[in-house]
Write a structure and sequence with these properties.
Mean pLDDT: 91
Number of strands: 10
Order of helices and strands: HEEEHHEEEHHHHHEEEEHHHHH
Protein name: CHK kinase-like domain-containing protein
Domain CHK kinase-like: 131-335
Pfam families: EcKL
Strand order of the largest sheet: 1-2-3-5-4
Organism: Arctia plantaginis (Wood tiger moth)
InterPro entries: CHK_kinase-like (IPR015897), EcKL (IPR004119), Kinase-like_dom_sf (IPR011009)
Distance between the termini: 46 Å
Length: 427
């Protein structure tokens, strides 16, 4: 945080606080160890004075002022940056806040929607190696516990906001295709960072280790099951070195007409929730470093297969996907003319058919993501790499290393998912 100065902060917040003089600031880690992996997050507390005219206008009054902002920057360790592809991920987030989100807001404003999608935190600055965001904690938003799955009410709200976000892609792609595809060009738009064929060798050792860990956990959990080999055989086939990475690349390749700009990293830590009098009232989406142009089902399988308890998802998955489709179609209609494709070839029923086809096709993506996601979700903090250290053990290796844990919760979740996918005919 050495580049932060009072002048820097004063200039950054001048538009929002023109009558404030910032006098002091202090930065503290904005997340716990294990809550983020590719960047450092700080909460910067600012104090100063606010000057304004007295109620009768006769004199100037000074009063104490304070606020906080969120500051994201690249890890100090150059080895860690390289291992986790932090710089490429950071470029994605900068592109999102400086190019994609402004374009989406401008497009959305053209339609004068009564309740526009706004569940993205205000960005004060996004460039090179830092992103500065509004601190939503000040407004009562809280992060759910990464070790706990999403509750049903939370899942519905996440899908509602996500459907409205996805709808911006579908509507803009229809009405302004040239403008939309400019957002996903490889020069200054978002781009796939992980699942591209040229990364096959780069990630080979990483996934070899992650797969070995996952198979060991599933074998242990199913040791007494008479169907052990049925599940393990299909799991191993999916994870084979010849097939696995190519499958993930294929699943992340956009498929029209339903491809959208996805959030890309829909785990619990990237959702902030607000409760009013104990009732769930609002939520925000955070962290767009893995934003990608792909099937919306990439986000859906992440939320429903990885962030919900298995029994809860199985019981409500059809209703949740119906709800997502209703919200998605309802929102694109608000951003379309009466004779658009969303009333004909992509009407509600046609859209739902496509959503369900993509849901089934992309189910494997959930399993591929779970190989490293479940250990991240369930590990103790001291098992996770510490991104705030310049040179910790994890950064000394030759590349990115998966989180190592074999706790009971991780074993349970890592076993339930492939069993469900096998039972449902996905793998």
């Amino acid at each position: 945080m050495g580049e932060i100065t009072l002048d820097f902060l004063q200039g950054l917040l001048r538009a929002d606080y023109p009558d404030v003089t910032i006098q002091n600031f202090k930065g503290t880690p904005g997340s716990k160890r294990g809550d983020n992996y590719t960047s450092m997050v700080y909460r910067i507390s600012l104090t100063g004075v606010r000057r304004h005219a007295s109620s009768d206008g006769s004199r100037e009054v000074e009063e104490p002022w304070e606020t906080t902002v969120i500051y994201k920057c690249l890890p100090e360790s150059l080895k860690r940056r390289e291992a986790f592809k932090s710089e490429a991920l950071f470029c994605n987030e900068v592109a999102f806040y400086t190019k994609i989100w402004p374009a989406f807001m401008n497009f959305q404003n053209l339609w004068k929607i009564p309740h526009p999608f706004q569940s993205i935190p205000k960005c004060y600055l996004a460039h090179n190696e830092c992103v500065v965001l509004k601190d939503l904690k000040r407004e009562g938003f809280v992060m759910a516990d990464r070790r706990q799955g999403l509750e049903l009410e939370q899942s519905y709200l996440v899908l509602k906001q996500l459907s409205h976000f996805h709808a911006l892609s579908l509507a803009m792609k229809y009405h302004d295709p040239e403008g939309f595809y400019e957002l996903v060009n490889n020069k200054d738009g978002i781009k796939e960072v992980f699942y591209i064929e040229e990364n096959t060798e780069y990630f080979k050792n990483y996934y070899r280790e992650a797969i070995s860990n996952a198979l060991s956990m599933v074998e242990e959990e199913l040791s007494e099951s008479p169907d052990k080999e049925v599940y393990l055989d299909k799991f191993r086939r999916f994870c084979s070195e010849e097939r696995f990475f190519h499958t993930m690349v294929e699943l992340c390749t956009p498929k029209e007409p339903l491809a959208v700009i996805c959030h890309g990293d829909c785990w619990t830590n990237n959702f902030l929730f607000k409760y009013v009098n104990g009732d769930l009232a609002d939520m925000y989406l955070l962290d767009f470093q893995i934003a990608r142009y792909a099937s919306p089902a990439i986000d859906l399988v992440f939320i429903l297969y990885l962030c919900m308890e298995r029994e809860l998802c199985a019981k409500h998955v059809n209703s949740l996907l119906e709800f997502y489709t209703d919200e998605l179609h309802g929102r694109v209609l608000q951003m379309s003319d009466e004779d658009s494709i969303f009333t004909t070839t992509l009407n509600r029923d046609a859209l739902h058919k496509l959503v369900m086809e993509e849901w089934r096709r992309c189910g494997e993506f959930a399993l591929g993501t779970a190989l490293d996601a479940f250990p991240v979700f369930t590990c103790d903090s001291d098992e996770a790499p510490n991104v705030y250290e310049a040179d910790d053990d994890a950064s000394q290796g030759s590349g990115m290393q998966p989180v190592h844990t074999s706790n009971a919760e991780c074993r349970r979740r890592m076993t339930q998912l492939p069993m469900a996918l096998v039972d449902n005919g996905v793998i």
